[in-house]
Structures are given as C-alpha cells and as structure tokens.
Amino acid sequence: MKIKSSLLTFFYHFIFAITSSVVGALFASWPLLVVFVIVQKTNRTVNLSLGQVMANYNQLLKYLVCPFDKKLVMTNFRTSPMAAQHFAEVKRLFILAIVAFLCCLTIHFFVKHKNSKALKLNKVSALLLLVLPIVVLPFALANFDQFFVTFHHLFFAGSNTWLFDPETDPIINVLTEGFFAACFAVWGIIYELYFANQLLQR
Hints:
Elements: H1 2-40, H2 42-45, H3 50-65, H4 81-114, H5 123-131, H6 137-142, H7 144-155, H8 177-200
Helix pairs in contact: 1-3, 1-4, 1-8, 5-8
C-alpha cells in the first residue's frame, strides 16, 4: 500500500507541475507577445497596430481556453482550414491541462486541510523530477527549431496542420519562434520552481 501511495503521490505532483506550468505559460504569453511584437516589430509585417495584434491574440486565447467557443474568429487574421484544425487540437490539449490543473488544485486544498503531510513528495522523487527536464534542455537550447518540430511530432502525431503558411495564416508572422521559445522557457522555470519548492519543504 505504501508503494502504491508513493506512486500516486509521484504522479500527482508530476501532473500538477506540468499543468501548473502550462497555465502559467498561458498567462505569461500575453505580456511576452507584447514584448516580442515591440522588439521584433512584427505588427508592421501584418500592417496592424500593437493594440490590434493583441486584440486578435485575446480572441485566440479565449478560443483556446473556453470550451464553449466552437469556432475561432480573429478580426484581422484569416484562418485556413488546416490552421483551424490545428488550433482545435491545441484547444483540446489546453482544456485538458486546465481541467487537470483545477483537479490537482482541489485535491491539494482538500487533502492539505485533512492531513498536511498526506501529499508529501519524498526527496529522491522531488530531485528526480527536478532534474528530468535538464536532459532535454541542452537539446532545446542548441536547436530550438528542431526541438519545436520534434515537440509537434510527439503531440500531434500524424498531423502536419501545425505547418502554417504565412500567406494563408498571417498570424504566424506574429507568433514567432522567439515568442514560442520564451513561452517554453517560462514553462520550464515554473516546472523547476515547483519541485525546488518541494525540496525546500523537507
């Protein structure tokens, strides 16, 4: 029973860390996009103001996180059928992550209220989960473009809908590789902080 309980705790914290990082990266993506549009001047590429770009990004974010939005509509960016399919796939993953995050959060508060030590992660497990991304980090930093491709092959197997054409889906001119790299970095930082906090709670 103790081994089973330890495994459940291990997977609980792993899922909580992953989903917390996804939610955190989603929130951080808004100010990050502002910075990248200003620095890279990508709004000029699509002939829009910064405000217009961000208004369209708000529409995209709302579609991606709201289960009741069935169709993506952006005021200034047209969306090809292929891109619409990809965004629908991303939406399913984001909603799954948000639901899992909320479930983990509920468990955290409920269990902590009953027994503050019930969800304690042992030191070895916390350290293992902390160093796990470090295996991937050198590859991601050395060639983010290849990492990005590999990531999409893993999560969108058998689908090439993520290969956007700037002519048919101009939003890709704004959502640059640098922007996605920064979002990934935020994801990694939140994940590492989660398990660093677990270690400090010893």
